[in-house]
Amino acid sequence: MITTSAASLVTRMRLKRELSKTAFAQLVGVPASTITRIESGIVDPTYSMLQKIASGAGFTLSGTLSDVGSDAPYAAAVERIQNASSVERRRLVKKLAQTAILAPVTKRPGVRIFSLDRPIGDFVRYLEQRGANPTVSSLEAVADDIASTRSFTPVVYVERPEDLDDLTPMSPTARSSVIVLPITENVRKFTRWVNGTAMLAPEWGMLDALASPGRQTDVARTFLPQLAARVTMTREAGAAA
């Protein structure tokens, strides 16, 4: 049960994310004026609106404000991008780094990290042979290609990570690693097939790359302008067709 006022709750969400009202509004997908009016007590939002704001900011609504720990903010962000106009799409893609911090890949439910002793393409084919139904994310999904490993730490979703007991867990001596996460309904919603491989939408792949540990985040940031230009051209091409 929520006992604090909506104004106080929304303000706490925003301050925990260390964002201005404008940046916070962009993150959760509502007008900045709405956040301002809620925080000032001028508007008393409905419960569904509070849920939308909390979900977009990566929180659950309860007696205390707690991180969701799920991919719900990712799904909301990708859906906003795919439904936006060309100009708005470019701006939203450049803001993906803000969304990525809401769901670090290593803190998601069911995550497992394994040593990667083969090219990512070979690893994905092995998972397919195992019947794990892998879905590729991170920079490989951004590039639509698993012929070469672009990510320092690739991210792959499978049906049941807990069943992959034959893989070697990550260790300090391993040369590289792969992050394996369970497939969720949100992942299924944004999965597409590229040259016979199940991949997440490029925007989601970018989010996972930005939310990965180590140098992966810095590398992903350098690709943001390219992705912004790409999704804008894709939208314009689709409109022309």
Automatic annotation (TrEMBL):
Gene3D superfamilies, per the entry: lambda repressor-like DNA-binding domains
InterPro entries, alphabetized: Cro/C1-type_HTH, Lambda_DNA-bd_dom_sf
Signal peptide: none
Residues covered by the HTH cro/C1-type domain: 10-68
Top-level division of the source organism's lineage: Bacteria
Molecular function GO terms recorded: DNA binding
Protein name stated in the entry: XRE family transcriptional regulator
Species of origin: Cryobacterium tagatosivorans
